[in-house]
Amino acid sequence: MNKSCKKCRADLVAYYDRELSAKRMREIADHIAACPTCADEFSVLQETLSAVPAFPEIQPSADYDRTFWEKIRAVRATREQHRWWGVRAVLSLIRFQRPVFIAAAGVCVCLCFAALFAVRHQRQLDPEERAVAQQLDLFAHYDIIRQSDALEHFELIRVLDAFVEDDTK
Amino acid sequence: MVHDPDVQLMLRFQRGDEAAFRQLYEKYKIPLLNFIFRYCQDRRIAEELSQDVFLRVYTKAGSYRPDAMFSTWLYRIAINICLNELRSGKYRFEYELKTVDADHGDKFIEAPDHTRSINAEDKLDEEERGKRVRHALAALPPKHRVALICSVYEQLPYKEIGRRIGCSEAAVKSIIHRSKLALRDLLRKRKLYE
Ligand SMILES: [Zn+2]
Fold this sequence. Notes:
Chain A has helices at residues 3-10, 12-16, 22-34, 36-50, 64-96, 98-122, 127-134, 142-147, 149-152, 154-168. Chain A is mostly helical. Chain A has three domains: 3-51, no CATH class; 79-120; 127-168, no CATH class. In chain A, helix 3 (22-34) packs across helix 4 (36-50) and helix 5 (64-96) packs across helix 6. Chain B is built from nine helices and two strands; from the N terminus they run H-H-H-H-H-E-H-H-H-H-E. Chain B is globular. A two-stranded antiparallel ribbon of chain B has the order 1-2. Helix content of chain B is 70%, strand content 2%. Chain B is an all-alpha fold. Chain B has helices at 5-14, 18-40, 43-59, 70-88, 92-104, 126-139, 142-152, 158-165, 169-188; strands at residues 108-109, 190-191. The structure holds zinc ion. Residues 5, 8, 31, 35, 37-38 of chain A line the site of zinc ion.
């Protein structure tokens, strides 16, 4: 078998299933048209596969639906039971582990109060912030401050401050 | 999200609409039953396994994600159940007997093949051919069998088969190639012992 026949055979089933790219489909078609051996191989494949007998189709038996919905009802019942088991477990915990439950409940209540307190006080400013806020009207006069000659001599003031600091040492 | 009316039904069921589940069940029960029947070739097992598939849809609805066609998801569940249940579940013994029977029940021998074309002698009657296909399917490894069923009986493209069995398109191409050539040869072989 030559190389192009080998390549053709490797793609013959995919060619039959039309699962190759348009380019490859054309190449195989051209090869089959020119090569009697591959053409024969393909026609055998085509004849046998196109005549694969249908598998006997079956219908669900008479009690198929009934059996299935019974299974579904059983699933639902189990789920319901599990839900009640959850509630029952909590109730029995309360009954038999009363001190533990009371302690846990107490901790929960404390935590709730603490959280509530924290949220309330979070919004209030501390004294320093409040002082800053009260001074905010300074900003209304910001242009006046900027024009004051104190700022023009700001560098000089810093140098003099440094002198004073050195003197005091 | 995938545009598929069955996905919408499944999402409705996820939100608690049981009627949507009933609609999906009615739509898929016969195709799914036949798909599994082709795989295991036993009506009773096929009925039980197909019901298991729907039960799993019912119980696992919460984890359903609409990232593929509903049918892809459904058949993936079916294939998983088929592969696992028949390998290790309660049907294993019964099923193995069947497969062994399919493997050795008939003895085939390759016909002396000079012409490489189908002649009258080579043609088998419909019933015999049907039997051979069933035997051929039973003799294939599980994933190959699923792929061949999807291709021959459901006419699915390789891409969708790959999604269902969890393989690349290239792997499906190779599986289908080998399986269909084997099927072709088997349908042309003459029986040695009548
Ligand atoms: Zn050739």
